[in-house]
């Protein structure tokens, strides 16, 4: 099982990073309402725990039990000594996707694809300046490489850009928009960067609302207490649900089922809006917490 797909893009409002070295976190991930769980072998794992974390991630993939949640594994950077073993292990385990950090160019993804074989989807973290500059060619190569998602790595981007901490929202905004544009050009999932503030629900709500306005499908998270806010923030409100129901009902009218565009609420509504409406109603049915 997996989250629903509408207009060619999977619905993913929330993707929670979890250290693969923490067995309690993996067990808990099977019960949380995040749309995806990302078992991390990179930043969240100490150097001397990499081997055990890899084994735990592979075991979790093979054991399953995550229901409709996508189970993704983030490898170590491909320029590190751990990456080759990560890719070899994940090629046989075959999680829902493998997330490659610090994707600078198509060559990075091609290396991962060669090691994983053809059957495991790739996700790419765009968290370097070179990665931003390579977005166009990365998107063009997405189908060939089996790339299905782009994630904004805002923490590393801010560090590389030498932004003050916390970075001003406007400094990263144009880069995040570029990630969305690249994702949409290739029919990919686009996930916004993490919110580092664990005890600031107002800030998290603002970030989720902004991410949705920019066109992201959802947000990456670093703590379970952020899941409900992301699910709400990237889900529809009552007005959107009401509009979607009217659009679906209008196109279901026998007198209008064959039409490409109809008049509704004083506006012209096309079949592209019907696809949006169906996606909104699917979002409304998904659990929040």
Topology at a glance:
Elements: E1 5-6, E2 9-10, E3 14-19, H1 23-29, E4 36-40, H2 50-63, E5 70-74, H3 83-93, E6 97-100, H4 106-116, E7 122-126, H5 129-133, H6 135-140, H7 142-145, E8 147-152, H8 154-160, H9 169-185, E9 189-192, H10 201-214, E10 218-221, H11 227-233, H12 238-252, E11 261-264, E12 267-270, H13 271-285
Parallel strand pairs: 3-4, 3-10, 4-5, 5-6, 6-7, 7-8, 8-9, 9-10
Antiparallel strand pairs: 1-2, 11-12
Helix pairs in contact: 2-3, 12-13
Characterization of the model:
The two termini are 19 Å apart. The mean pLDDT is 92. 43% of the residues are buried. The protein is built from 13 helices and 12 strands. Helix 2 (50-63) packs parallel to helix 3 (83-93) and helix 12 (238-252) crosses helix 13. The protein has an 8-stranded parallel beta barrel with strand order 3-4-5-6-7-8-9-10, surrounded by 6 helices. The protein has helices at residues 23-29, 50-63, 83-93, 106-116, 129-133, 135-140, 142-145, 154-160, 169-185, 201-214, 227-233, 238-252, 271-285; strands at residues 5-6, 9-10, 14-19, 36-40, 70-74, 97-100, 122-126, 147-152, 189-192, 218-221, 261-264, 267-270. The longest helix is centred in the middle third of the chain and has 17 residues, at 169-185.
């Amino acid at each position: 099982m997996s989250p629903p797909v509408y207009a060619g893009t999977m619905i993913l409002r929330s993707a929670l990073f979890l250290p693969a070295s923490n067995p309690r976190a993996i067990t808990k991930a099977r019960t949380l309402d995040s749309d995806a769980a990302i078992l991390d072998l990179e930043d969240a794992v100490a150097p001397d725990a990499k081997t055990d974390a890899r084994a735990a991630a592979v075991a979790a993939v093979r054991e399953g039990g995550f229901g409709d949640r996508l189970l993704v594994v983030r490898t170590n950077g491909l320029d590190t000594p751990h990456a080759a073993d990560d890719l070899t292990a994940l090629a046989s385990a075959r999680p829902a996707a493998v997330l490659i950090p610090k994707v600078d160019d198509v060559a990075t993804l091609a290396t991962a694809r060669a090691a994983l074989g053809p059957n495991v989807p790739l996700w790419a973290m765009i968290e370097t300046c070179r990665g931003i500059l390579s977005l166009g060619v990365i998107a063009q190569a997405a189908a060939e490489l089996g790339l299905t998602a782009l994630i904004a790595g805002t923490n590393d981007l801010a560090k590389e850009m030498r932004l003050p901490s916390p970075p001003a929202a406007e400094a990263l905004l144009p880069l995040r928009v570029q990630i969305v544009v690249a994702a949409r050009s290739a029919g990919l999932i686009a996930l916004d960067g993490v919110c580092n503030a664990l005890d600031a629900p107002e800030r998290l709500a603002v970030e989720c609302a902004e991410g949705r306005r920019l066109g992201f499908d959802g947000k990456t998270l670093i703590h379970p207490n952020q899941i409900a806010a992301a699910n709400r923030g990237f889900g529809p409100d009552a007005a959107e649900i009401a509009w979607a129901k009217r659009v679906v009902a209008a196109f279901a009218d026998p007198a209008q089922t064959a039409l490409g565009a109809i008049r509704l609420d004083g506006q012209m509504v096309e079949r592209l809006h019907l696809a949006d409406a169906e996606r909104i109603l699917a979002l409304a049915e998904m659990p929040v917490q």
